[in-house]
Specification:
The chain is 33% helix and 20% strand. Helix 12 packs parallel to helix 13 and helix 15 packs antiparallel against helix 16 (507-524). It binds zinc ion (ZN) (2 copies). One zinc ion (ZN) is lined by residues 236, 249, 251, 287, 289, 291-292.
């Protein structure tokens, strides 16, 4: 890691270089017009033997200069000494423009823009440098490719040759933003992404291809082929070799041999790829055999056996394919670097920032401290770290997810800490996952991955202003409001955020957000394309209201208003062809969500409650405490840890969930009761829905009607019972136990017409 002083030194150096280059080039071109009042004598020169992306770059330059000025510069591949030229690519460029340049030193994506004696050069390293130079030149003129449909091209009469020489390369060699926009190859090329999962054709500059994408252990050594005869190739867990939820036995030399053969086959079958992945399967299940354990213990991390394994394959590969690299993960159980082993020179480390705080940037709260320490550790032993980071809500893509501070800060953090690539994971693109501000996020990441020293908030402003036009002020206010909500240190949510996590979605905030989007939509009326974009941005707020409604939060959305909001939600989902709402298939099922909203029951959320009583022996659910034999609001009982407990009245308007963790302390090792009277004017059998975290007992009029000892997360209607209620007063008593984490219940009446 660099110290702040080193960072200052680095910026000073940059300034000096910029000043020097400005000084050296003044006087070369002056204020010489390239196109003057819509007319020009210039031609665009691209060599006949230029690579496809350079020819594309020349055509793009011609196309956009024409859009800007109305004048079309001809493209030529021959010239005489009198013609003024813009050379696109180094090939056959004028000698005076190449003075002092060592073309071989230009990296793949590095470019130079300079003008000397009235001619101009835009050129760079193969395979994308020249194209990125043209994009950079157009960017400087104000061209922007914000989304697939919103492209801003300025209108100018006159364009001058650039006064100062520009030489640039991106901060990261691998730049992937996993959002829908970025799967449009032209959009990706214009925004200079170098992704792995998007096959950008060579004519548009190509991709940065690694193969296979990730989690490859079972592709390297298939359990379908080998497990039956060689269970020893796979993880030993609790003394047994495991086929499922497992990994490979990395110290087995036969496993190394087979994996090496697979990698050689991949290299031959995939000449388009320059990096091959040797990655653990998702999840846990590392091998605990004596050999693996000894090595991992000695290295202080499971990355010990991993790096040892990858290095052996890498050594064999290096002898035959010196340019090929292998990559492996530092992820979950391999996140800690090994003590003494070093990744081989042809091994890159893909480190995952997995499941830390999403509310605050790295350095902004204590959640990230272990990650920073581990990255420092890897940085000491590898100069080839790429980062896999998560910028979406895995649990609910459509939830308002204000992780803006992470977006605008953490790309720079990675660049300043020696990382050479970044995968910003957004919502599931191949399955058309929706997600809050996907287009904004794709564009911001593309800009920052190229140059992370730009101000991210200024970029957000620029995007919102240009993409949302007259609706922009409302959307800016929404973003700012949500950002303010998550600023406090106490706010914490991860990539598995549930709508109540972090506490930032209060009824007041959701109401204000809804109001802002109504105003934003009004401002967009008359412009159908804009309205469609604003409605897409509105979708997460609509989703959160419907979600809260489905779990009893009528303060977020009334029963009367629900059908209208649901209809709008369904229309926007259909118009934007969003087909998935979460990483998990079940929770991501949109039609199931719509059904839950439509069939949301009447949640009962006003109860008498009492607790906590002792559950330290985990027998609290079975132990009979006084509330099971009497209901006396004046009596005081001895509760958990000798605290005095008594009945109190409780009502939750924000949700049908009765959250005991927010009511009783300590919330660990307790049991608590809720009691209520239901009055009926006749005998009636009633359908009851109940969900609990964790185990539950329920009595109706003193008779035990439900007894379920379980460990689970509460969802509405986990149990559905039909119970005989009588005319007059009926008492319902519910008891819930707790084993850590959440603690509470949902109770609902599923019959339409009660109450
Ligand atoms: Zn093993
Ligand atoms: Zn935090």
């Amino acid at each position: 890691m660099k110290t702040p002083f080193e960072k200052i030194q680095k910026s000073l150096l940059l300034i000096i270089i910029l000043l020097l280059s400005a000084f050296l080039n003044t006087g070369c071109s002056g204020d010489q017009p390239l196109i003057m009042n819509g007319k020009s004598k210039y031609k665009i020169f691209v060599s006949e033997s230029a690579i496809p992306s350079e020819k594309y770059a020349a055509r793009e330059l011609q196309k956009y200069l024409k859009e800007i000025t109305g004048f079309e510069l001809p493209i030529v591949n021959t010239y005489d000494s009198k013609t003024k030229l813009i050379y696109v690519g180094f090939e056959d460029a004028g000698k005076e423009l190449l003075a002092g340049l060592k073309m071989a030193e230009f990296e793949n994506e590095e470019f130079i823009i300079r003008s000397i004696d009235g001619n101009m050069l835009i050129a760079g390293g193969e395979t994308r440098g020249t194209l990125y130079g043209v994009i950079g030149f157009l960017n400087n003129l104000g061209c922007r490719w914000y989304t697939r449909e919103v492209i801003n091209i300025p209108r100018l009469n006159t364009i001058y040759l650039p006064l100062e020489e520009i030489r640039q390369k991106p901060a990261f060699e691998y730049r992937e933003a996993w959002y829908k926009e970025a799967y449009d190859t032209e959009w990706a090329a214009h925004n200079r992404l170098a992704p792995s999962t998007v096959p950008i054709p060579d004519s548009l500059g190509g991709s940065f291809i690694s193969y296979p994408f990730v989690h490859t252990f079972y592709r390297l050594v298939s359990p379908d082929i080998y497990f039956a005869d060689h269970p020893e190739y796979f993880s030993m867990i609790d003394g047994k070799r495991k086929r499922h939820e497992a990994q490979l036995c990395l110290t087995n030399s036969e496993v190394v041999k087979i994996a090496t053969q697979t990698v050689f086959r991949w290299i031959e079958e995939h000449p388009e790829a320059s990096i091959f992945s040797i990655d653990q399967n998702d999840g846990y299940g590392y091998c605990e055999c004596a050999n693996c354990k000894a090595l991992d213990d000695a290295e202080g991390s499971h990355s010990g056996t991993l790096i040892n394994f990858v290095n052996q394959i890498a050594d064999t590969v290096a002898k035959v394919y010196p340019k090929i690299k292998l990559q492996t993960l530092a992820y979950v159980y391999t996140e800690i670097p090994p003590k003494t082993l070093r990744p081989a020179d042809n091994v890159t480390i893909r480190m995952c920032h997995y499941n830390y705080c999403s509310a605050h940037p790295i350095g902004g709260c204590s959640s990230h401290i272990p990650f920073v320490e581990r990255l420092e550790g890897w940085d000491k032993i590898s100069k080839q770290i790429t980062i896999w980071d998560y910028f979406t809500d895995y649990a609910r893509y459509l939830l308002p997810y204000p992780n803006f501070e992470r977006m605008v800060n953490d790309v720079r953090f990675y660049a300043e800490n020696g990382c050479v690539g970044l995968f910003a994971q957004g919502s599931n693109v191949p399955d058309n996952g929706g997600g809050e501000f996907n287009e904004l996020r794709a564009w911001i990441f593309a800009q920052l991955m190229w140059n992370p020293w730009q101000d991210g908030w200024t970029l957000i402003d620029e995007f919102v202003t240009n993409v949302y036009g007259p609706s922009a002020p409302y959307i800016s206010e929404y973003i700012e409001m949500m950002h303010e909500q998550v600023k406090p240190d106490s706010v914490y949510f991860t990539i598995y955020a549930e709508p109540t996590d972090g506490g930032y979605l209060t009824p007041e905030i959701v109401q204000r957000a809804e109001q802002l989007f109504i105003e934003a939509e009004e401002a967009a009326s008359g412009d159908p394309a804009l309205l469609k974009r604003v409605e897409l941005a509105h979708l997460p707020v609509l989703y959160s209201r419907l979600y809260f409604y489905s779990t009893g939060g009528r303060v977020f959305l009334s029963k009367e208003e629900m059908p209208k909001v649901l209809l709008k939600f369904e229309r926007i989902i259909a118009e934007h062809k969003i087909s998935r709402m979460a990483e998990g298939k079940e929770i991501g099922d949109i039609s199931a969500f719509i059904e839950r909203v439509k069939n949301a029951p009447n949640f009962i959320s006003d109860w008498w409650i009492i607790g906590p009583f002792n559950n330290s022996n985990e027998k609290g659910l079975e132990t009979i405490y006084p509330p099971e034999s009497e209901f006396d609001v004046d009596k005081i009982y001895s509760g958990n840890e000798s605290q005095k407990v008594k009945w109190k009245s409780y009502k939750n308007q924000e949700s049908g969930y009765i959250d005991f963790t927010k009511i009783f302390h300590p919330s660990e090792n307790g049991v608590a009761y809720a009691s209520r009277i239901f009055k009926l004017d006749k005998n009636k059998s009633m359908k009851i829905g109940l969900g609990s975290n964790d185990g539950v007992r329920m009595w109706l009029n003193g008779r035990l009607v439900l007894d379920h000892k379980t460990l689970r997360k509460a969802e509405p209607n986990q149990e559905i019972l039909t119970l005989p209620f009588k005319r007059g007063e009926n008492s319902v008593l519910i008891k819930i136990d707790q084993f850590g984490g959440g603690w509470g219940f949902y109770f609902s009446l599923l019959d339409e017409n009660y109450l």
